[in-house]
Amino acid sequence: MKGHGTIPSLILSFLLVPLSGIRVEAAPTRGNVKVLGIRVTFANFKNAPGLSTIANRLQGAKVSYSRYSYGKLNITFDTVEVSLPRNRNTYDAGSLADAAELRARNKGFNPAGYAIVGFFHGGHASGNKAIVGGKRFWTNTGGATIHEMGHNFNWGHQNRWVPNGSNPIGAGEAQTPDMWHFMANSSTDADPYDKWTRDWITARHNITNEGSFTRRLYTCDQKNTDPANDKRVLRVTRDTGNSAAYWIGFRSRLMNKQNDGATGKNELLRQGLVFYWDRGTVGGQNVVLIDIHPEQGGWDNHSLQPGETYADTAGKVCITNLGRGGETPNEYIDVRINKGAFPGNRPPEPTWDAPATWEAGEPLTITITPNDPDGDEVACMWKTTGRAIPHNQSSPVLNQTWNVPGSYQVRAEVSDMKGKTATLSRTITVTGDYPVTFANAGFGPWAGNEDHTGWSSDVLLDGEVAATANLSVDELQGDFEASATRVRNDTAESKSLVMVVLKDPVNGAGNEPVSQAYLQLSVTDVRPGYVLDGISMTSNGVVFSPEELTDIQFDGGGTTVVDASRSTDILVGGVGDTPSPLTPGDTVNFIGPGAWDNPNGFTGNAHSLKWSIDAAGSTFLGGNYITESTLSLANEQLAFGVGMSREPGTGTFSYSNWATAISGLGGPEAAFEADANGDGIANGLAFLLGAQDANTDASELLPDWSSTEGRTTLSFRRSDDASPSIRSIVEYSSTLQSWTPALEANRGVIITVDDDFYEPGIDRVNVSISNNLADSDTLFLRLTAQP
Question: Could you tell me if residue 672 is inside a domain?
């Protein structure tokens, strides 16, 4: 990574004062603007920043103002060094400027030919300040250059409105600063009202009449948006006194996950509408940023989120964010504006189909039925556990997948977009171990005359599973089989949990009916256990109506562990027997066609008892399952129990796996230090940075750097696959000859990690280094990777 000279920093000015005797004339904000940067030294102080640093500061201002203005403001600059003959403390701000301009003029740089003149003095009492609307600014080291030049362009310190209560525009006061403006943070653009008044934004939506309107609002802070997408600000008038209007915009650049106004990073702004309140009095200082959510977490959440409605009943204005769309740099937010009083309006009465439980890794669709008594269209703001911001949508349908078992809250605020709302909320238990098709469907045969004849088989259920049944046979003989199919919360038909097939259950006495036998399904003491909602029992030998099957149930309510067992009588008859009438209850008449042809087996159709789970709301909780102990059963009883354990995690994914199995490399080109695809990035470093494979260009994955006053930070990607086996170190140098590792134990080094910052499995590692560690005004940084 190429090093830079003096590290850029941000310093806010402390004063804004016109100096007596100075002509005030704002610099133009369109076209070419010439700036002169003067390095000023004194008889007793020569510590002003060097000309190269001044040039860097002015170049930074040039780039930033070009971005703010969409290329409509072009700054050009010159630099010159002058030396004043007296000691520094003998000059005030005005005399310093006059003397410095005179000497610059003598060197061929006439200040009269420049729109702005900056004095870089290194520590004079004037500090960092400028004349609002004038052409001069003063700065210590140049860190405040963009801010002070903003004053020259006639910007003051931007204000935000701080109400006394929960009404965003209620009684309160204007306070500084508005942190979401370049006058407080150079990484943030001017607000859309400022851009309109400076003629940077040349087209707008302007809603002044009552009615319902939908408008597409394009990002206001992307420079290279298609010229056709020029409507970057929305103005909506209010229907009250002198509090005239809202100016509304969309900032799409501030996409970092860290919500922090001081650094211009706010994930909420990536999909939020920002509001500026024109209070109606003369002058731009009366347009202030407002917080849509006062008293709710400071200013980070000041924007209106997708599906959310801002209702200004006094102003007869309701504004709804319908969600972000488009691709960078042409992103937009669709906005619904309902303007009017809407007398008699009633809130929606929504219902939804959110389940109590769901399976990990399975897509879930939740649908809201609005039930608005006035027939109004609704917008929905969805919030779910594990997501820092609302979902980017406003529709009544949410598609969601949770891959990790746990409890997740789903909350939907349903708005009629005319000021009335209702809220739905539910905690959904997401489970990790649903049954899947058994690998071994057949568990038989068995036969015998002794008590507790047993069978068991290891089966596949996302890991190791043991299924065990015990049969007290006494006089019973025959084959026993069992199978199971995957159970999900489908809305279609029920599916089998367990099918027990009994072949030839006879007592060895010819056509004599068997005395009562009991089949017992027990979920007692299986931890954390099953939650079974609506178990029914059927037979393939006799047709039963559903009404006759509803009595055999274990109802766990969808979220709790069942501790219960039930049994049912099974009557078996010989040839010519007919089923006894079946009434709702536990007794099932189990009979099949055919004849007994020997005392040890029934050769006709096999019969089955099937336990089915009602699809809606049935769940298996995740965790470690323990096979229950063998039940103490009377003769002619069958117990069925299932034990499960969760799937063990996979082993470490190594560089060798990535280079050979994933990338298909071999020989020398598979080496850690090789560059298989010739993109200039070694294989090992590409693996660390999270490249898909060694054949994919990794140049877009290289580290970023940023700076604050006194510190420089290198931020790089680190794959979870690589971190256990690859050692990544940031090193610094002032000479490129020797390098020092930036270790967390070292003084002046701070290392932080943002988990899954770029995407799941790709963290951001931030290595912040004090500039004092550099031996000169040059600091070089590099990232190394070692296996």
Answer: yes
Residue pair 269/185 in contact (Cβ under 8 Å)? The answer is no
Looking up residue 193, the CATH number of its domain turns out to be: 2.60.98
Question: Among residues 316, 339, 362, which one ends one of the domains?
Answer: 339
Rounded to whole angstroms, the Cα distance separating 95 from 99 reads 6
Write down the number of H helices and E strands in the chain.
Answer: 6, 45
CA distance 304 to 301: 8
The amino acid present at 130, given as its one-letter code, is A
Q: Count Cβ atoms within 10 A of the Cβ of residue 228 and give its class: 0-12 exposed, 13-18 middle, 19 or more buried.
A: exposed
What is the widest separation between alpha-carbon atoms in the chain? 128
Quick one: pLDDT at residue 546? 25
User: Does pLDDT of 246 surpass 50?
Assistant: yes
Owner of token pair 């054949």: 695
**Which distant-in-sequence residues (6+ apart) come within 8 Å of 293 by Cβ?**
168, 301, 302
Counting the structural domains of the chain, the total is 5
Residue type, 485: T
| Eight-state DSSP code of residue 226 | -
pLDDT recorded at residue 319:
99
User: 668 and 636 share a domain?
Assistant: no
Distance CA 487, CA 644 (A): 15
**Is 524 or 260 the better-scoring residue by pLDDT?**
260
103 plus 29 within the same structural domain: yes
Smallest CA-to-CA distance from 762 within 712, 705, 692 is with 692
Same domain? 123 vs 34:
yes
Measured distance CA(320)–CA(129) in Å, rounded: 41
Give me the pLDDT at residue 649, please: 34
**CATH number for position 744:** 2.60.40.10
Structural domain range at position 117: 15-152
Q: Does 625 share its domain with 668?
A: no
DSSP assignment of 469-487: EEE--TT-EEEEEEE----
Assess contact for 249 and 273: CB atoms under 8 A: yes
Same domain, 307 and 416: no
Q: Are 117 and 131 in contact (CB under 8 A)?
A: no
The pair of three-digit structure tokens given for residue 786, joined into one six-digit string: 């070692």
Q: Are strands 727-733 and 565-572 parallel, antiparallel or unpaired?
A: unpaired
Judgement on whether residues 527 and 600 belong to the same structural domain of the protein:
yes
Residue 615 DSSP SS3: coil
Residues in the chain, overall count: 787
Q: What is the pLDDT of residue 433?
A: 43
**749 with 714, same domain?**
yes
Q: Which DSSP symbol is given to 112?
A: G
Structural domain contains residue 166? no
SS3 (DSSP) at 656: helix
Q: Summarize the confidence of residues 729-735 as an average pLDDT.
A: 87
Residue 437 lies in a domain: no
The answer to whether residue 98 sits within a structural domain is yes
What pLDDT score does 518 carry?
28
Distance from chain centroid for Cα 375? 33
What is the distance between the alpha carbons of residues 506 and 508, in angstroms, rounded to a whole number? 6
* Distance (Å, whole) CA 68 – CA 183: 12
**Can you name the residues that pair with 471 across neighbouring β-strands?**
453, 638
- Whether omega for the bond prior to residue 581 falls within 30 degrees of 0, making it cis, is no
- Does the pLDDT value for residue 152 go beyond 90? yes
| Average pLDDT of the segment spanning 285-314 | 90
User: For residues 771 and 713, what is the distance between their CA atoms, to the nearest angstrom?
Assistant: 10
Tell me the pLDDT of the chain averaged across its residues: 71
- The verdict on 195 and 113 lying in the same domain is no
> CA 441: distance to chain centroid?
42
Helix residue spans in 304-369 (DSSP H)? none
Q: Which residues contact 63 (CB under 8 A, 6 or more apart)?
A: none
The residue out of 589, 611, 644 marking a domain boundary is: 644
